[in-house]
Structure formats: C-alpha cells, structure tokens
Amino acid sequence: MNRSILMALALAGLATTAQAQTPKEQFNAESKRIATRYAEDKKLCSEESESAARMQCTRDAKSEYDKSMALAKAQLKASPAKPGSCMECGKVTSVVVTDKAGEGSALGLIAGGVAGALLGNQVGSGHGRELATVAGAAGGAYAGKKIEENAKSTKQWTVHVQYEDGKQASFNFDHDPRMLSGDRVRNDNGNLVRN
C-alpha cells in the first residue's frame, strides 16, 4: 500500500516538472525513474526474513514496475504533437500545369453551322448544292464547337503537398500560385498559403 502511495506522489511530481520536456524526453525520464524505483523495491524485498514474503514482495514490485511502464508508454502514445508543430503545415512536392478544356455552347454550334451552310451553298448546283449545304452545316457546327472550346480553354495549376504528419493533399488553382517544389506551405482553412 505504501508503494502505491509513493508511486502516485512520484507521478504527480513528475507531471509538474516534465511540462517543459518533449514527450520522448518525458518518457525516458519516467522510464529511468521507474527502473530506479524497481531496483530499490527489489533491495527492500531481499531484506525480508521469510522466503515466501521475499517472493511475494518481488512479485508485487514487478507488478508495480509493469503497471508503471504501461502507464508511461500509454502517456507517450497519447501525448499531443510537440509544441510549436503545425498540423496544417507541409512542403510542396510538385506543381503540375495542365490545360483545362473549355466548354462549347450552343452559340459556337449555331455560328459554325450557319457559316458552314453558307459556304456549302456556294458549291455545286442542284442536289449537289443541297448535299454540300448540309455537309457544310454539319462540319461548320463541329468546327464552331471546337473553336469555342479552344478559345475558352484555361490553364490549371495543381499543387501537391505532403504535410508534416505524412498526409498528402492536392490544391487546384486557376492562376499561377507562384509555388515551387520544396516550398514550405500551410493549409489556412482550405487555402494554401506560403509559410
């Protein structure tokens, strides 16, 4: 019972002094303290006069050691990220520029079809002129659609980022974000900004 009280007091003291340490440093200091305590407990156990009492004391000391180490490991795993780290910070791994196709509208189709029909109507006579007009309208409509799509096409910049915690993300821009591979960046509410 006295060992449990001493262990609780030691853990409380450790919690107040270890706040300036990193979680790994806290774990190392705690492990060292637990091992020292275990060695002291084994010395006390060896002073027991009866064999059965020595064995029980050693088992109790080992049990306390195991519990304390398990608690220290759990605290290390549950510890928050190191102070000053940024969960939304990362590094640009690549910037890819692609052409984003524009969308054709009815205007391109109609204008191209009319122009094609007028040109087709200038060719031949009789049924040949009618066929040329229809073919000109179809070809003109297709050409008008493609011309409009090309006129409305834009560039798209995709910035690939790897965060400090290992996660990856991509951000699309319709303008040059002026970022290069290796730049330090931060995700600011869905907006990628240079750090």
UniProtKB/TrEMBL annotation:
Keywords: Membrane, Signal
Domain Glycine zipper 2TM: residue ranges: 107-148
Compartmental location: Membrane
Any one Gene Ontology cellular component term annotated for this protein: outer membrane
Region named Disordered: 174-195
Keyword field contains Signal: yes
Biased composition annotated in UniProt, kind: Basic and acidic residues: 174-187
Main location per the UniProt record: membrane
Endpoints of the signal sequence: 1-20
Pfam families: Rick_17kDa_Anti
PANTHER family reported in the protein's UniProt record: OUTER MEMBRANE LIPOPROTEIN, PTHR35603
Protein name: Glycine zipper 2TM domain-containing protein
Higher taxonomy: Bacteria, Pseudomonadati, Pseudomonadota, Betaproteobacteria, Burkholderiales
